[in-house]
Amino acid sequence: MRSVIDVPDLSPEELEELMDTAEDIIANPAKYSEVCRGKKLATLFFEPSTRTRLSFEAAMYELGGNVLSVTGAGTSSAAKGESVADTAKTVSCYADIIAMRHPKEGAARVAAQNASVPVINAGDGGHCHPTQTLADLLTIRREKGGFNGLTVGLCGDLKFGRTVHSLINALSRCEGLRFVLISPEELKLPSYVKNESLKKKGIPYTQTTDLEGAIGDLDILYMTRVQRERFFNEEDYLRLKDSYILTPEKLKKARKDLCVMHPLPRVNEISVAVDDDPRACYFKQVLNGKYMRMALIMMLLKEAGRL
Ligand code: NCD
Fold first, then answer.
1. Element (H or E) spanning 250, and its range?
2. What is the pLDDT of residues 143-166, one digit of tens each?
3. Which of 126, 196, 246, 288 has the fewest Cβ atoms within 10 angstroms?
4. Atom of ligand 1 nearest to the CA of 135
């Protein structure tokens, strides 16, 4: 059964295909409004979420399908000690496809090994978040016309930020790309991501703690929140949480065609005064995420022989 747990589960050609489908949905929404009639998506969210869960659910509704939803470990049998494997087997009896978010790295993989329907990873701990990457890729393609040759700055919590890990993984397949990794010392990109996605592929990157020094070189600036829930102690979080705050003042040093992105939720990393700047793309990213999830749900249901 084909599931999408991490970015490499989709080939570069499939990513292009998903973006093309998303563009077609944007242009002709009526064409897709009955495609999933009678099909059910189960959203199993064992961690907080606003965008990702609602975006999956809105995606399924806009395809004419239905949604079954579990939110919060406390309200499901997980609270009674049920394993992820048993939950996946059970939910496969009710739903045609599952989107799952879980605080443990690897949980979605375990679910996929035990489910008899496709599983989509909607974020597993500090590991990865492939459908946020789908939203990010469509946003970059729409704003920049493509990926090759871009200088991409990623700023904030690069250690625990799963959206960063997945985005770097996807963009590392493009040509002529360069990364600027901007973070406090303690929140640098994990070495497994650096080795697998950058060093092995010979992709140029620099690491810095200085956002203002780097901003003028960037085509994309991907801001992230410091991931409070992954810290072992609150003191470290409080010390690091406001390491970077993007303001209109700092943007004066940036290119006119910079694209400012953020997976959201934002805490303090981008001042609300930036929202009116034409370079702010983070709410476009939210909408793009819904279209990409529609495209992914259709692709996986078709492959599973359920459409
Ligand atoms: C992200 C996540 O859950 O990793 N949110 C999202 O899905 N858009 C980013 C975050 O929580 O900081």
1. helix 248-251
2. 999 999 999 999 999 999 999 999
3. 196
4. 8
Q: Which fold has domain 130-285?
A: Rossmann fold (3.40.50)
| Predicted TM-score (pTM) above 0.85 | yes
CA 22 to centroid of ligand 1, rounded, Å: 21
Short-list 65, 64, 120, 127, CA closest to 91: 120
Question: For 261, how many CA atoms within 13 A lie in the half-sphere containing its CB?
Answer: 31
Reading the block at residue 181, the tokens are 């990794």
pLDDT tens digits for 20-41?
999 999 999 999 999 999 999 9
Output the CA–CA distances (angstroms, integers) from residue 201 to 3, 11, 117, 195, 219, in the order listed: 25, 16, 34, 9, 21
Mutate which of 264, 269, 283 for ligand 1? The one with the most ligand atoms within 8 Å of its CB, which is 264
Q: pLDDT, tens digit, for every residue of 252-303?
A: 999 999 999 999 999 999 999 999 999 999 999 999 999 999 999 999 999 9
Read off the tokens for 98. Answer: 């599952």
Tell the CATH superfamily of the 7-128+286-303 domain: Aspartate/ornithine carbamoyltransferase (3.40.50.1370)
Pocket mutation for ligand 1, best pick of 6, 7, 52, 104 (most atoms within 8 Å of C-beta): 52
Phi and psi at 188, nearest 5°, equal: -70, 160
For the chain, what are the domain ranges?
7-128+286-303, 130-285
Tokens 């492939």, residue located: 130
From residue 234, give the alpha-carbon distance in Å to each of 49, 126, 156, 185, 240: 21, 17, 17, 17, 10
pLDDT at 71: 85
Domain 7-128+286-303 and domain 130-285 have a common topology: yes
